[in-house]
Amino acid sequence: QVQLVESGGGLVQAGGSLRLSCVASRRTASIYAMGWFRQAPGKEREFVARVRGVSDSTYYADSVKGRFTISRDNAKNTVVLQMNSLKPEDTAVYYCAAARQLGAYDDWGQGTQVTVSS
After folding, report:
1. What does the alpha-carbon distance between residue 35 and residue 42 come to, in Å, rounded to a whole number?
2. Any residues with CB less than 8 A from the CB of 58 and at least 6 apart, and which?
3. What is the distance between the alpha carbons of residues 29 and 94, in angstroms, rounded to a whole number?
4. What is the rounded CA–CA span in Å between residue 89 and residue 63?
C-alpha cells in the first residue's frame, strides 16, 4: 500500500490560484501513475488529472485543461497540482491517488478542501 498525504487546500477568490501537494510513502518513479480527483457536495468523485510515474505523460479532464497543471518530483516522492484561474465550480475536496498497476487507482489520500468564492 502507498500512503498519500495531501496539502495546500484553502479558500480563494475566483481567478486565483492554489498549489496542492501530495507526498507518497513510496518512490513515485515506482508507481505506475499518480492522479488527482475531486468530489463536490452531492456529486460523484471525478477525475481531474494524472501523470505517469516514469514518463512525463499527462492527461487532464476537459473541465480543467489549460488551467491546471500536474507535475511530478520523483526526488521528493511528490506530485503537485497547480491550479490557476480557479472558478467557483472547482470547489470540492481534492484527493490524491496512486495506481500501482495499470487499470485502477489502488490508494487514496484523505483529501484537502478547496473552496473558490465568486
Report:
1. 22
2. 49, 50, 51, 52, 70
3. 22
4. 10
